[in-house]
């Protein structure tokens, strides 16, 4: 019988070369441009977040970071592009509540399964909603507003920035907590929803505060409460829903980076670490705060656990209200 040692040596040598090549490949990432899919229009808050990150990451990675907007279908078109991209980390997407946590409970079918086809990398930002009413509404506190709404009965209607949006679901969560009746009037975005409130066509709206700033400054609408667990540093005088009689109430519009399932863990960890570093920069945090955004961060595992919890919470509301969107 021939001595097997030479063959073993050759095998070990080949394995070492393979391992070395793999390690070198991982260290070399990124070796080409990285694209970030934004599933919302240019100029949106998601676009701002993506470009803010890209400005820093292209310096850290020494590669171009290309922003590509793919709006439509409530974010599904853009996130489907990410889900079907090569699993190498060179295509990222900035996903948000709708196409990640809400979609599986609202659509009869989706072009991708978020839990199966996407890897959560890092939470980028979150933002509370605010409850806005017309400036001449007699209510100035949340208890006063609830009392006022109950007296109106089915003559009370509320606007949202779209069916199945965080704006819509926040009011449904609020209705569940307060037992008020209301008719939902969905609009295509914050500007028309805010204008409907200012004109008196609708009587309440949950949305993010920056979208209402011109109407607030023009004294056409006023804010009653905020949906964060704690008061906002930017609006310290605005009480939370939780402290106004509904303990535990919280609703956040959030977003984060994702990539295609199957992307090597080492690449995911590299992106996570670098984005976390960017989100800790004082200048970045200040820029985001000026837009009403709270910088995120954390591990991929923490982000996945957060998404799972959001799905359970809002899935129950979606089922209770019976929200179904065709796709």
From TrEMBL:
Keywords: Signal. Residues 1-23 form the signal peptide. InterPro entries: BUG, Bug_dom1. The keyword Metal-binding does not apply. The keyword Chloroplast does not apply. SUPFAM superfamilies: Periplasmic binding protein-like II. Gene3D superfamilies: Bordetella uptake gene, domain 1 (3.40.190.150), Periplasmic binding protein-like II (3.40.190.10). Belongs to the UPF0065 (bug) family. This is Tripartite tricarboxylate transporter substrate binding protein. It comes from Variovorax guangxiensis.
């Amino acid at each position: 019988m021939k001595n097997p040692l030479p063959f073993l040596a050759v095998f070990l040598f080949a394995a070492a070369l393979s391992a070395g090549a793999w390690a070198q490949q991982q260290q070399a990432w990124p070796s080409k441009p990285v694209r970030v899919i934004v599933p919302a229009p240019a100029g949106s808050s998601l676009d701002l977040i993506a470009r803010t990150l890209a400005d820093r990451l292209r310096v850290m990675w020494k590669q171009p970071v290309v922003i590509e907007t793919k709006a439509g279908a409530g974010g599904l078109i853009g996130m489907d592009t990410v889900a079907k991209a090569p699993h190498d980390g060179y295509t990222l997407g900035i996903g948000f509540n709708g196409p990640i946590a809400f979609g599986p409970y609202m659509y009869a079918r989706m072009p991708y399964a978020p839990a199966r086809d996407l890897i959560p990398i890092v939470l980028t930002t979150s933002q509370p909603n605010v409850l806005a009413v017309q400036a001449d509404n007699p209510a100035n506190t949340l208890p006063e507003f609830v009392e006022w709404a109950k007296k109106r009965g089915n003559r009370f209607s509320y606007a949202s920035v779209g069916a199945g949006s965080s704006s819509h679901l926040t009011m449904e969560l609020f209705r569940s907590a307060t037992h008020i009746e209301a008719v939902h009037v969905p609009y295509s975005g914050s500007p028309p929803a805010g204008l409907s409130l200012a004109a008196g066509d609708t009587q309440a709206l949950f949305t993010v505060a920056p979208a209402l700033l011109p109407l607030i400054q023009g004294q056409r609408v006023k804010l009653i409460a905020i949906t964060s667990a704690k008061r906002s540093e930017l609006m310290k005088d605005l009480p939370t829903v939780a402290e106004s009689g509904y303990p535990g109430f919280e609703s956040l519009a959030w977003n984060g980076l994702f990539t295609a399932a199957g992307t090597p863990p080492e690449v995911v960890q590299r992106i996570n670490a670098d984005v976390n570093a960017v989100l800790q920069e004082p200048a970045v945090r200040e820029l985001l705060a000026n837009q009403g955004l709270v910088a995120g961060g954390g591990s991929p595992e923490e982000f996945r656990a957060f998404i799972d919890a959001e799905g359970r919470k809002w899935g129950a509301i979606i089922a209770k209200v019976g929200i179904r969107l065709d796709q």
